[in-house]
Amino acid sequence: MCGIVGALLNRGQVLAGMIEGLRVLEYRGYDSSGVALAGSDGLAIAKCAGRLEALECHLEASPAPPARAGIGHTRWATHGPATDRNAHPHKDGTGRLALVHNGIIENYLELRAELAEQGHEFLSETDSEVCAHLIGRELELGGTLVEAVARALKLVRGYYAIAVLYAGDEPELVCARQGPPLCVGLARDGTWIGSDVLALIPHTRDVIYLEDGDLAELSTSGVVVRDATGALVERELQRVDWDVNDASKGSYAHHMQKEIHEQADVLARTAFHRLDEEHGDVRFDESGWSDAELSGVSRIKIVACGTAWHAGLVARYMIEGLARIPVEVEYASEFRYRQPLCEPGTLAVAISQSGETADTLAALRLAADLGARTACICNVAGSTMVREVQSHILTQAGPEIGVASTKAFVAQVVVAYMLAVRLGRAQGVIDAEQGRRLVRDLRLLRPGLERLLSDEMVQKIQAISQRHKGVKGFLFLGRGVNFPIALEGALKLKEISYMHAEGYAAGEMKHGPIAMIEAWMTSVVITGHGAMAEKVRSNIEQIRARGGPVIAVGADQASLNLADEAIEVPASSVWLSPILNVIPLQMLSYEIARMRGCDIDKPRNLAKSVTVE
Ligand code: AGP
C-alpha cells in the first residue's frame, strides 16, 4: 500500500530527508508520489504520476522553497488512476492544509457530496482528498488542528493512516491511524513520521508505534499522543535494531536477487539460536509459551494470505506429520467472512511477513473473539500483529523489500518446522532422541542451501530460463509437503513475470490440468520422497507422453533422469525438502522475469504490504 513520511524539524531543511524516506518506502506503493512543504511563504506542493524519480526530476526543474516541516507520500492507487491530480498530498479549500493518506475512506462518496453541497471543489478522484476538505472544514469552525482532525475522523468510516500539515504562523503536523501502520521517530533534528520504520532509521532508532485510534500532535521536540477516547497516552519508545544497509540492494541488481541469496544466512539467523540439541527441542523464548500451554493445544488454525498462506500449508503437513495435531489453513480473506467456528483448545496462528496485512489482522481478531488463543509468525517486530497477539515468533529474515516474498517465506517454513518440533515435544509425541535428530537435520541444512545459491546453479537456471521464457504458460506440480511449494513457485512466476502459471497437487493432474499439456506448456515438477517419488515419476511420464516439456526439481535422481531439464537439489529429510526445493523456483522466476524485462522489485499492480482489503 502507500508510503508516508513527514517531519517537523528544529533545524535544517526537511525535503532531502523526506525524499530519502520515500525512496526507502517506494516498495510499498509506486504509481505516483508527492511532497508538501510548509515554509515562510505558506504551503508548497509537488506531486507526479510515475515513479519517485519523476518527482525528483520535477523538483530539480522547479525547486521547492526551504522548509522545516513537510509530508510526503508514495501511492498505490485505490480510487482513481495514477495521475498527477490523484497523487498525494491533497489540499483543503483554504490551500493551507495538506494531507497524505494510506487506506480507504469507505464513506467518501457521501462525504464528498455533502462537502460539494457546501461549496468545496475537488480536484481529484480520490477518497483521500475528501478527508483533507473534511478537516479543513472542521478547522474553519474553530479550535486547534488536532481538534479539527479528531472531529473530522469521527465522520469517517474506513481505514486510514494520515498525516496532516498546516501552514500557519508556525507549521503544524498531526497524524492519526486506524488500520494501516504509522510510527513516530524522535530524532535530534526534530520529530519524524513514517508508515514503516525503515524511513525513520536514517534519522533515529527511537520509535513510537501508534496504535489504532491514536491521534498524534508533533512538535519539533517530540509528540503528544491521544487515544481513541481523546485521553492523553504514553506510547512506549522502542529501539529499532534493523540495519538500514539490510534494506539496500548492495551489489545485487534487485532487492529480490539479494534476498534470495541471503537465505542461507536467514536460516541461521532464524533457527540456530533456538535449537536445543542437548534436549532435542526448540526454544521460542519470546513466545512466552509453557509446555503446559502447548500441551493444551488440541487444534491449530492458520490464517494468512498469498505466500504466507503457502507457508501455512507447509506448516500443516509438518505439524500434523510430526506433532500429530490437526491443523486447518485458511485464506484470511475467506475466514473473516465465513462465520467460522473455533473449538476450545484452538491456537490461531497468523503468518505474515509485514504483520500489517488487513485480511490477516481481521481474521486473527475474529479468531480471538471466537475464543482461540492467538499467535503469529511474523518478520516485523514492531508490527500491529506482533503487538496484538498473545504469543509471537519472529522470523529474523531482516527487512524484505522485494514485493515478491522469498527469504521471509523460507524463514516462515523454518519456523513452522521448529514449531512442529516444539509442539511434538510439549505434547510428548516426539521423544528426545527423535527431537535431537530433527534439530540436527535443520542445523545441517545450511550447506545444501548454499549449494543451491552457487554461481553454478545460477548459470544452470539462467540457461533453463532462456529456453522457457517464451512458453505459453507453466504448470507447477508437487505432492505432499511439496504441493504448497508448487503453489508458491507458480505465484512467484506470476507476480514478477506476469506469465500465466498454475500450481497443482500432482495427484490432481489427471483430474483436469493434464488437458493443458502441450509443447508450449512447461511443467515444473517437484520430485518426491519415498513412495511419493514413484508417483511423481508417473506424473512426469504422463506429461512427457503428451509432448509436454518437464523441468524436474528435487533430489530423486530417477525423476530427474526422466525430465527435459533437471535441477538437482541436495538430499534432505522430507520435512526439510520444501526449504530446498523452493530456492530453484525463486531463481527460475527471477531469471525469467529479468529476461522478459519486468520490473522485478516493483511488479505492476502489486504492493509489498496489503494494508487495505
Ligand atoms: C508474496 O510474494 C506476495 N507479495 C503476497 O502474496 C504476500 O505474501 C501477501 O500479501 C501476504 O503478505 P504478508 O506476509 O505481509 O501478510
Annotate the secondary structure layout.
Layout: E1 3-9, H1 15-25, E2 32-39, E3 42-49, H2 52-61, E4 69-75, E5 90-91, E6 97-105, H3 108-117, H4 128-140, H5 145-153, E7 158-167, E8 171-178, E9 183-187, E10 190-194, E11 206-209, E12 215-219, E13 222-226, E14 232-233, E15 237-239, H6 255-261, H7 263-271, E16 275-276, E17 281-282, H8 291-295, E18 299-304, H9 306-323, E19 327-331, H10 332-335, E20 346-352, H11 358-369, E21 373-378, H12 384-388, E22 391-394, H13 407-426, H14 432-443, H15 446-452, H16 455-468, E23 473-478, H17 483-497, E24 501-505, E25 521-526, H18 531-544, E26 550-554, H19 557-562, E27 565-568, H20 577-595
Parallel strand pairs: 18-19, 18-20, 20-21, 21-22, 23-24, 23-25, 25-26, 26-27
Antiparallel strand pairs: 1-4, 1-10, 2-3, 2-4, 5-6, 6-7, 7-8, 8-12, 9-10, 9-11, 11-15, 12-13, 13-14, 16-17
Helix pairs in contact: 3-4, 4-5, 7-13, 7-15, 9-13, 9-17, 13-14, 16-20, 17-20
The protein binds 2-deoxy-2-amino glucitol-6-phosphate (AGP).
What does this structure look like?
This protein has about 625 residues and is an alpha/beta fold. The chain has 3 domains: about 240 residues, 4-Layer Sandwich (Glutamine Phosphoribosylpyrophosphate, subunit 1, domain 1); about 190 residues, 3-Layer(aba) Sandwich (Rossmann fold); about 160 residues, Glucose-6-phosphate isomerase like protein, domain 1 (Rossmann fold). About 35% of the residues lie in helices and about 25% in strands. It has 20 helices and 27 strands. The strands form 5 sheets. An 8-stranded antiparallel β-sheet has the order 3-2-4-1-10-9-11-15, covered by helices on one side. Strands 5-6-7-8-12-13-14 form a 7-stranded antiparallel β-sheet. Strand 26, helix 19 and strand 27 form a beta-alpha-beta unit. Helix 7 runs antiparallel to helix 15 and helix 17 packs parallel to helix 20. The chain is globular, with a radius of gyration of 25 Å. The relative contact order is 0.09. The site of 2-deoxy-2-amino glucitol-6-phosphate has 15 residues, from helix 9.
